[in-house]
Write a structure and sequence with these properties.
Blueprint lengths: L1 E6 L2 H10 L7 E6 L9 E2 L7 H10 L4 E4 L2 H6 L1 H7 L4 E2 L3 H8 L1 H11 L6 E4 L2 H9 L5 E5 L8 E4 L2 H12 L11 E5 L4 E10 L3 E3 L4 E2 L2 E3 L3 E4 L4 E4 L6 H21 L5 E11 L2 E8 L7 H7 L4 H10 L13 E9 L11 E2 L2 H5 L4 E5 L2 E4 L2 E4 L3 E9 L2 H12 L7 E2 L11
Parallel strand pairs: 1-2, 1-4, 2-3, 4-5
Antiparallel strand pairs: 6-9, 7-8, 7-9, 10-11, 10-16, 12-15, 13-14, 15-18, 16-17, 18-23, 18-24, 19-22, 20-23, 21-22
Helix pairs in contact: 1-10, 7-8
The chain binds adenosine monophosphate (AMP) and glycine (GLY).
Length: 422
């Protein structure tokens, strides 16, 4: 098979690394890729959201299966476009991707079908939104409806802060069109966990557990990022809790989408808050998480191509996913300043020597090749991932590898894999 992977982050490098292990695969392309994806794939300089150019490439190069990383391409309808030309592609259609593309759609679906989530209201105009928060006391969460690169959620301690956030989105348009409609919701308290599952429109096959660390600094302090590291399995997700999440959230979501004529195929990612009243859904994503994918795929024993084929063909009930018993920990090495402004173009050294460590794989994110060198080219630069017999040894192996890597201006968390409650 010839495979095209769309995207250029750590998640896509991990997908390629895993796909390359399948005996079914002959050649992999990556658009646009990074310095790491060139190990197993040929990089193509097409941006991940240029879905027409991607289609042209896939038709010309007889691509047998396309795997999409980032949400933009899905929300733009890459799956519909490819399928209309008879091409096979893994991921949800445009109307199904709205589950991530519109928070109002996702919340309304949850309400209509009784899925546990925070109380909320949707607003299209400034005044009613301000009047609503004025009547509230205590913390509220204000969310831009559309895609905002993970930045469209403002946690507000008071109605005054909520007013500011609403004005910022709806009046000053700081998130552009994404903030023309907003969701104001109840502030939930608890531990966060991600549960990812394959869906085929009907059946749901949960992946093993993973937890990411969203805050920029140690001890979960500082601004939220795309994710500063992740580990799998996450002991917080006990088998009983996983069953509950499948029963109360993931399966009902897939059933609801089918009823709404928005058949969901691909990866369904539920971001959950484990509250005193049980798990509640903070958001759905319609794609692999980044960096959760790095430790998850490091532990997956089953052929990923077979799992994706089952999702496309509606046969997930006939396949199981096997996982290594070891723990995998992924430490994101970022450019200093991330998630705010940061510099690019720094020379990275030590990757080869880091990869000689026990069970270590360095997944590239924001990197680019430059002659024989590798340069930084983004906020999240590398995802240093290591296996270990247990969590402590995986953490030790990962940080031993991290210590061997350097460039001018590194930032990473020192506490990945450790959570107060797990
Ligand atoms: P989202 O993109 O909706 O998952 O929100 C991003 C982050 O904001 C989540 O990972 C949570 O840390 C936080 N968050 C979102 N919604 C809530 C909520 N209702 N209560 C508390 N925290 C929230
Ligand atoms: N790590 C969070 C996400 O992929 O959205």
């Amino acid at each position: 098979m010839q495979i095209l992977v769309v995207g250029g982050g750590g998640r896509e490098h991990a997908l390629i690394w895993k796909i390359a292990q399948s005996p079914l695969v002959k050649k992999i392309f990556c658009a646009p890729g990074n310095a790491g994806t060139t190990e197993q794939a040929e990089n193509i300089s097409i941006p991940a959201d240029d879905i027409n150019a991607l289609l042209e490439f896939a038709l010309k190069n007889k691509i047998d299966l396309t795997v999409v990383g980032p949400e933009q391409a899905l929300v733009l309808g890459i799956v519909d476009l490819f399928e209309s030309k008879g091409l096979r592609i893994f991921g949800p259609s445009k109307v199904a991707a709205e589950l991530e593309g519109s928070k109002a759609f996702s919340k309304n679906l949850m309400r209509k079908y009784g899925l546990p989530t925070a109380d909320y209201e949707v607003f299209d105009a400034l005044e009613p939104a301000l009047a609503y928060v004025d009547k509230k006391s205590g913390p509220q969460v204000v969310k831009a409806d559309g895609l905002a690169a993970g930045k469209g959620v403002i946690l507000c301690d008071s109605p005054e802060e909520a007013r500011e956030a609403i004005k910022n989105m709806m009046q000053d348009k700081s998130f552009g069109a994404a903030g023309e409609r907003i969701v104001v919701e109840e502030y939930l308290v608890g531990e966060e966990i991600s549960v990812l599952a394959f869906a085929d429109g009907k059946n749901v096959l949960a992946l093993d557990s993973a937890q990411d660390h969203k805050a920029a600094y140690d001890g979960d302090r500082g601004p939220n990022t795309g994710g500063m590291g992740a580990y799998s399995p996450a002991p917080l997700l006990t088998p009983a809790l996983k069953d509950q999440v499948l029963r109360e959230i993931l399966q009902p979501a897939v059933d609801a989408m089918a009823k709404e004529d928005r058949t969901f195929r691909g990866i369904l990612y539920a971001g959950l808050m484990l509250t005193e009243k049980g798990p509640k859904t903070l958001e759905f994503n319609v794609r692999w998480g980044d960096p959760e994918t790095q430790p998850l795929l490091t532990r997956l024993k089953t052929d990923l191509i077979e799992l994706m084929n089952a999702s496309i063909d509606g046969t997930l009930d006939k396949i199981t996913a096997e996982w290594k018993k070891e723990t995998a920990v992924c430490v994101v090495m970022a450019a200093k300043g991330y998630p705010e402004a940061y510099e690019k173009g720094k020379i990275i050294s030590g990757i080869d020597s880091a990869e000689q460590g026990d069970g270590v794989k360095v997944f590239h994110a924001g990197t680019k090749p430059d002659g024989g060198k590798v340069l930084t080219n983004g906020g999240r630069v590398l995802g240093v991932t290591a296996l270990g017999a247990d969590r402590d040894s995986a953490i030790k192996n990962a940080y031993k590898a991290v210590d061997k890597i350097s460039w001018d201006g590194i930032h990473y968390r020192k506490d990945i894999g450790q959570r107060p409650s797990s």
